[in-house]
Amino acid sequence: MEKLSCVGKSLPRKDALIKATGAAQYAADRDFAGMLYAAAVRSPRPRIKILSISDAKARRVPGYVTLVTYKDIKGVNKWPVVMHDYPFLPEKEARFAGETIALVVAKTAGAAKKAAALVELKYKELPFVADPLRALEKDSVKIHGEDNVFSSFVIKKGSVDEAFEKAAFTAEGEFSTNYQVHAYLETQGAIALPEPGGGMTVHSTTQCPFYILDAVAAALAQPYHKIKILQTVTGGGFGGKEDVPALVASHAAICAAKVGRPVKLIYGRKEDFQSMSKRHPGWAKVAYAADKNGRLTACRVKYVLDGGAYSTLSPIVLWRGTVHAAGPYKIANVDIKTYAAATNKVPCGAFRGFGQPQICFAQESLIDELAEKTGMDPVQFRLKNMLEPGDKTVTGQKLNSCCGLKEIVQAVRKRSGWDKKVKGRGPGAGGPDVVAGIGFSATYYGVGLGAGGRYLDRAGAMVNIYKDSSVSVSVGNAEMGQGALTVLAQIAAETLNAPYEGVKVEEVDSSKVPDSGPTVASRTTLMSGNAIVDAATPLRERIFKTAFDLLVAAGADASKPMTAGGGVFSMGGKSVEFRPVAAECWRRRLKMCEQGWYTAPRTSFKNEDGQGDAYVIYSYSANAAEVEVDLKTGVLKVKKIWAAYDVGRIVNPRLALGQAQGGILQGMSWAVYENLVYKNGIMVNPNFTDYVIATTADKPEYDITFIEKPYKDGPYHAKGMGEVPLIGVAPAIANAVKNACGARVTSVPLLPEKIWKELKKA
Amino acid sequence: MSAKKNTTPAVFALSCAVNGQRTELEIPSSLSLLDFIRETLGLKGTKEGCGEGECGACMVLVNGRAVNSCLMMAVQLHGKELVTIEGIKGKAGGLHPLQKTFMAEGAVQCGFCTPGLIIASEALLRRKPKATLEEIKLELTGNLCRCTGYEKVLSAVEKARGK
Q1: pLDDT single digits (tens) A154-176
Q2: Which pLDDT score is estimated for A421?
Q3: Which residues from chain A sit within 8 angstroms of residue B86, using beta carbons?
Q4: Contacts across the A-B interface (CB distance below 8 Å)
Q5: Sign of the CA dihedral A660, A662, A665, A666?
Q6: Which of B45, B84, B146 sits opposite A236 (nearest CB)?
Q7: pTM of the model as a whole
Q8: Which residues, including other chains, have CB under 8 Å from residue B25's CB and lie 6 or more apart?
Q9: Which of B144, B151, B152 comes nearest A695 by C-beta?
């Protein structure tokens, strides 16, 4: 790969200063003159028929302004996501405990909450279904269509039954995974400001400002150009701020439209738990077959996601899970069937990995079981079967040279000391009853939206060079903590040869850039990065031509090549900086602002048989986990995670490392601790006291390696990396537990009692 | 209705120091310290992450000790010194060493937990300037961070020792 001056360096994070000094303004930190506050009235039961809503008592609260119900919605009462089945506010029936039924507006946040608690809701309980497998049975209560299936996909290839009959080795198992709560530290929130003439400006925490634009325009029945969405500094997303901020912001906008004043709606942690999206609980039955030489010959999968009460993003989450369900292996015969089931619980949606971690836990656990049956080492077994450049995935997609899976597996194998450790670990460091073990996993991840979201996979950018040579970059993808403002500034600075310090990427303003799709699917560096390169390329030509002229005028030897780097242009011993070059461009009245656009290459996936190119490119991860298990209590401690990734070129190594460490811990926390509990359709532990996430004390040691396989269509050869670090962590840990103590735990989280029960069986 | 039975006066004359400035204000007795900081004083750098004392995003220093301001009443500040993230400064007045190391190490991602983490770390290093890694880990268990995996947070605090 070419040597670059800005891309590939750990340049300082653009937003670190305002965040470290407390100056960054998140949604809750913004106030406006005349602003009122909204609070939600929520359904107390899993499924109800709404009989009446009364604010007779709420009215007595000092500062009370009004009650807002579906009757106040001017537009169509359907939130436009994928399937349009979720009303902004329910009219007759509410379908999960925690669903917003109405809102109260008041003069203070405290008054709004107090009044909302006093709103009297009369209702009749309706029969409900809470279990997704039960929901798929014929005689279940029906809450969606005739079968409670939001969506279903298949991948079919070869003759699976025949391959299983001929197989020398087979392994089969049932696996399940529980919810994961995003636990972004900033809860959901938005402020809606009515504009003169019927428009609305919305300030919101979000990953997807254009989803909010779609929703607010629909709710208010206003044309898009009257609605402006301004993304506020966003305190964590992880998928949890993909779709649902559009619902929260629409509620604020519906209230603001009614009262004609700015309305702020900030969620408390409990209601955020109860009503905002989650990682789907997953259930899977997986079977693999191998021949006598240990080559995988067939894979059969049935995979069910618990979608919750409304479809939201379930169809596309399920699709990604379907495509990756067999793992990163060469398998000729495949039969994958997947379902997203409707239940009367919180609607589930996007969470880092997007339907892959659940099925990855199942299939990577089972690969270890099959390897054991063949008598092969789990890493050797994977190496024998894994995808390499030129191989075809289970959807029949031929992989190009940008596939470093084998190298990353070898890197983790070597760095972790796998070959020695896997053979028997002996006692751990934590006492006489503690044993140590090591486990492995390998994964792949289709970068971007792929065929499942092909019509959304485009992005815009605007690059504007001011007279003083400072550069403003507008994009449609959002900073949510991952470092987009920094990485995209590096790409812009590289293309323009502008000094990095002088480039600023703005938080998203929907009126400045065309709809660039969501900030999801590890697509921002790739999509917005390419759009920036597209916008900056004509500017680069003007700047470089002008720099050349200035150097010649200064007496430079024009027979020598001009070089550019770090904001300086040099030729034949002379040099000129970006600033005078930009000033000269302005003096020449050259166009110093350009729009850019990027659309993802075509995909060819067909839903009928699940064959074709599913994604334009894949990123890869390999993971080894070292654990200790207490044989008396089943308590599990993750000591160290080795991981290696092929995510294309790394734009900012320090930020990439931060993504890796954060993704690993989030995956480990889900695998080991996080346990959201529902009883009879009611969430039991919607708080950080009873829903435990990993802290500093739980953090394992990290050992991270990047193998950079250049992606020809990526900006400076980058792919995408946000999600790969999380996906394979859970099965690596489960496989390590098996290696340590012989217990095969088939459900996430790997709670001590589950390990203990397996130990008793053995 | 219940005000007659309540012996606490509805309004309290609070006297305290806020980021080094003497402050005297009449406040409702029922006001939480967090609401006092964010809404009365308008200091928005202190964040509400859970409102139940579990996440540490609202941490501030009261007489040099880190407390979850969501769990304390504003009246409890009477006669005490409050330092919020806005009052965290280096010796020469610029950035505090912890702010510098958090930025340099890459310990800041979404940033919502950052003010609380810096406050908690400052309280520890004031008490134990040479705190060990294990002591730092233990001290920061009350500050949830969902982005970083804590590695860079811990190295930032280690590097700020003795500065």
Answers
A1: 999 999 999 999 999 999 999 99
A2: 94
A3: 21-22
A4: 162
A5: negative
A6: B146
A7: 0.97
A8: B13, B14, B40
A9: B144
Mean pLDDT of chain B: 95
Q: β-strands A227-231, A200-204: how paired?
A: parallel
- What phi, psi does B56 have (nearest 5°)? 80, 0
Nearest to A500 by CA among A19, A16, A5, A17: A5
> Could you write out the DSSP letters of every residue in B45-91?
TS--S-SSSSS-TTEEEETTEEEEGGGSBGGGGTTSEEE-GGG---T
What is d(CA A704, CA B133) in angstroms, rounded to the nearest whole number?
21
3-state secondary structure of A755: helix
Of the candidates B114, B102, B153, the one whose C-alpha atom is nearest the C-alpha of residue A661 is B153
Task: Tell me the two tokens of residue B87.
Answer: 């009052």
The conformation of residue B128, written as its DSSP 8-state character, comes to -
> CB–CB of B113/B85 below 8 Å?
no
What pairing do the DSSP bridges indicate for beta strands A434-446 and A458-465? unpaired
pLDDT at A452: 87
Local structure of A77: helix, strand or coil: coil
pLDDT at A689 over 70: yes
Among A11, A14, A15, A21, pick the best mutation site for testing chain B contact (most B Cβ within 10 A): A21
pLDDT of residue B70: 98
Greatest CA separation found in chain A? 87
**CATH classification code of A16-22+458-599:** 3.30.365.10
What is the assigned CATH class of domain B2-87?
Answer: alpha beta
C-alpha A109/C-alpha A39 separation (Å) is: 7
**Mean pLDDT value across residues A38-53:** 98
Inter-chain residue contact A658 with B57, CB threshold 8 Å: no
Torsional class of B20: left (φ above 0), alpha (ψ -120 to 50), beta (otherwise): left
Task: Name the residue ranges covered by the structural domains of chain A.
Answer: 16-22+458-599, 31-126+182-275, 282-388+402-451+605-761
B97-160: CATH architecture: Orthogonal Bundle (1.10)
Query: What stretches of A375-465 show up as alpha helix (H) in DSSP?
Result: 378-385, 405-415, 418-421
Give the tokens for residue A680. 């009879």
CATH topology of domain A31-126+182-275: Aldehyde Oxidoreductase; domain 3 (3.90.1170)
Cα separation, A179 vs A670, in Å, equals 8
Alpha-carbon distances, residue A90 vs A70, A104, A314, A516 (angstroms): 7, 15, 20, 30
Q: Edge-to-edge strand order for the sheet containing A458-465? A: A503-505, A471-475, A458-465, A593-599
Of A24, A689, A696, the CB nearest to B137: A696
Residue of chain A whose alpha carbon sits nearest to that of B49: A185
- The answer to whether A570 and A5 are in contact (CB under 8 A) is no
Between chains, do A186 and B141 touch, taking CB under 8 Å as contact?
A: no
Domain extent listing, chain B: 2-87, 97-160
Query: Could you give the CA distance from residue A480 to residue A234 in angstroms, rounded to a whole number?
Result: 5
Residues of A in contact with B3 (CB under 8 A): none
Residue of B nearest to A693 (CA): B144
Which DSSP string do the residues of A200-212 spell out, in sequence order? EEEEE--S-HHHH
pLDDT tens profile A253-292: 999 999 999 999 999 999 999 999 999 999 999 999 999 9
